[in-house]
UniProtKB/TrEMBL annotation:
Keywords: Transferase. Residues 42-215 form the Aminoglycoside phosphotransferase domain. It comes from Streptomyces longwoodensis. This is Aminoglycoside phosphotransferase. It holds the Pfam family APH.
Length: 248
């Protein structure tokens, strides 16, 4: 029998690997609905759905390896990063899904969530006040009208698989939907901004880097407490807190 590998596990969901099969267990059926629908609509390689029996979704493993992970080493040639940029542009140019995604929350809702989270981070002593206030100002630069795009919503480099210079698949689509394309780009290069030029070479257009920095700060500020509560370490080298410090 194949060994059962725990890929990620926390209170909301867990992902297991058994041989060449990934099992995602999620008590929120709506999230699984989004994941399956988004993978069927996305014009980029995605895992093949083997079966689904709520609360479990089974998908086939992808060939190749991930580009890396936040806080860890990265792999892939400049051409591989450019290929990822081209795949992302193809996704952003695709017809819109019918639902808003993680990157598509309203400006007012995001501003309120940002204010509340910054207050909690300072009041509970999680982060220094100057670090929070500086990044809050940077984050507010992302809160402007945008043209909706088909976004992945959680495009960490660990979710993009490559084989050589080819993208073989993108995983974890539960946050997908309509949103700001720059949110995806900011998430993708978070902690690895040295690869942005390669990504944009494949993406095919220049972008507003101040807005990207805003999304990076906003995403990191909103993630710190939930990550701690789920047993992860946003203070690890190269992770969310380092990304916030980089704005200082």
């Amino acid at each position: 029998m194949d060994e059962v590998q725990v890929v990620v596990a926390h209170a909301e969901r867990a992902t297991l690997r058994v041989g060449d099969v990934f099992l995602k267990v999620d008590a929120d059926q709506a999230r699984l609905d989004v994941e399956v629908e988004a993978m069927s609509l996305a014009p980029v390689p995605t895992p093949r759905v083997l079966w689904r029996k709520p609360p479990v979704l089974a998908t086939a493993a992808l060939p190749g390896t991930t580009l890396g992970r936040l806080g860890g080493p990265v792999t892939g040639s400049p051409a591989a990063w450019a290929a990822a940029g081209a795949a992302l542009r193809k996704l952003h140019d695709a017809p819109l899904p019918s639902w808003p995604g993680r990157a598509g929350r309203s400006i007012d809702a995001l501003a309120e969530e940002l204010a509340d989270e910054c207050d909690l981070l300072v009041r509970n002593g999680v982060l220094p006040a100057d670090l929070v206030s500086r990044n809050r100002r940077v984050a507010e630069g992302a809160l402007r009208p945008w043209t909706p795009a088909f976004t992945h919503g959680d495009l960490q480099i660990a979710h993009v698989f490559v084989d050589g210079d080819e993208v073989t698949g993108i995983i974890d689509w539960s946050e997908a939907g309509q949103g700001d394309a720059l949110y995806d780009l900011a998430t993708f290069v978070l902690g690895h901004e040295e690869h942005l030029d390669d990504v944009l070479a494949g993406y095919g257009t220049d972008v507003d880097r101040d807005v990207m920095n805003g999304w990076s700060s906003l995403r990191s500020l909103l993630a710190v407490r939930p990550l701690i509560e789920q047993g992860f370490d946003p203070f690890a080298p190269g992770c969310e807190v380092d990304a916030l410090r980089a704005r200082m």
